Amino acid sequence: MLNIQKKMSNPFLALLGLPATAVGFALSTQIAALSWILSNKYHLDIHDVAFVWLAGPIAGIFGQVIVGLLSDNVWFMGGRRRPFIIIGGLISTIAFLTLPHIRGISHITGISDIILIASVIALFLDLSINVTFNPARSIIADLTPEGKIRTSGYVWMQIISGFFGVFAYFLSMVFGNEMLLYIAAGIVFLTAVFPILFIQEKKEIEQTKLEDIEKFGVWQIFKEIFPLYGFLVFGVFSLFFHFFPDGLAAWHNPVLIGALVYSVLIGIYIIIQGIHHKSNRNEFQKIMLAHSFTWVAFQSMFILTGFFIENQILPNVKISNIAANWFAEKLTGVTQTTGSSVGNIVSLGFFILNLIGAIFPLILQSIAKRIGRVKTYIFALIFSVIGFFYIAYFSRLEIDFYIGMFLVGIGWSAVISIVFAIMSERVNPAKMGLYMGVFNLAVVLPQMMSNGVANVIKATGNHQLLYIFCGLFVATSVVFWIFVKEPESSTVDSNFSKGGH
């Protein structure tokens, strides 16, 4: 065991966060490049692009829970999380290398359906991300004690991952999205495979003394996620809707509205239930449902922002005056087109989002020590609500979009750092991988709702609705978070001097 691991020092926490950094860089690359390459290089419309992105949630439904369950109960290659992190990193590398060659794969295989090939590659990419992400987050909880050190572990994870995400968008602006895919293949391989070899895992994890050791099967998992049934139903409907749009058109909006109404009503039920019967399970369900509304917003933003820029901002600016084009033109000498300008504005906006996401966790951690993690998380999300509505109603020029992304980034910095520390203290530590997988369903099932958002925008032609919906979804999440109780470790004044704090 490394000496820095024994001391739980900051360098070890940074090393511990590198596998998650590989996933973060992969996600940033996917966000920057996938929608752009599908719409500009392969000319898919907004509905088809959203359908390809459904591969991610589908992969997450199976990958996260299954990998989480397996990684809790296996030991090989010197670890329980290590094998999945290494395997996921290798598959991500291959997926990135194949994305620029969809048309070539079509010629070689004789499959003319570009959407099918893109969906399969996206499915493998998302499977690899899901295979890696769960163990990468779980290992932080495995090897850190509850409270401040664990929060620091997730904060370090987000800081490093955030800066790498910023780097991905910078590379996108300078070298273009196709070159970014090749660079991502190398970076993901290096950050996923090598750091985990220097981290020693615990072969035995102490069972919780507060709860009985339960056996989880498919039915138990299905019961555990009952707050997410609305998102699940609409996700299944979306798959059928893509293939039978005319026959199911009349059902689309009622199913979408019904799914959202169910989610709100079940949230109210869980809150009332928690008032009468306090339990970690109830808190976990509240966190899961609150988190789900956040992810409807962020996934919709990631997928559809390019279309928003193309229709709401680009008509109001001259290509020669676009600030985001400066990086590519000055460093490469290549004149930017309309298509590349859209990609550059999106990349610079998400560059700002991830830069704030990388910096703010340290600030939020300091605030959390004074007012608690839940309140800090709520305040951060409120900034995202403001940012979403600012973009929706005031974003007509390039600078307006960047201001909105700055505000949204404050909430984003908390979404992928603090929430895991809060959630991890409400579950059985011996089943951390499984619960991380179950909790991730609060990410992947709501992501399928973004297909519904895309369909509404396509039907109305109103791209402003994207950020209006995003603001409403996160505002709903804030309301549910208000009823989440602060974990006890947040209020415990412990001495963590051995951890380098």
Topology (elements, then pairings):
Layout: H1 3-7, H2 10-16, H3 18-41, H4 46-53, H5 55-73, H6 82-98, H7 102-109, H8 114-143, H9 148-175, H10 177-193, H11 218-224, H12 229-243, H13 245-276, H14 280-313, H15 325-332, H16 338-371, H17 373-394, H18 398-415, H19 418-424, H20 432-447, H21 450-460, H22 465-481
Helix pairs in contact: 2-9, 3-8, 3-9, 3-10, 3-14, 3-16, 4-8, 4-21, 5-8, 5-20, 6-8, 6-10, 8-20, 9-10, 9-15, 9-16, 9-19, 12-13, 13-14, 14-16, 14-18, 14-20, 14-21, 14-22, 16-17, 16-18, 17-18, 17-22
Which key phrases capture this entry?
501 residues, disordered C terminus, mainly alpha, single chain
Outline of the structure:
With 501 residues, this protein is mainly alpha-helical. The chain is built from 22 helices and no strands. The chain has one domain (12-199, 224-489): Up-down Bundle (Growth Hormone, Chain: A), CATH 1.20.1250.
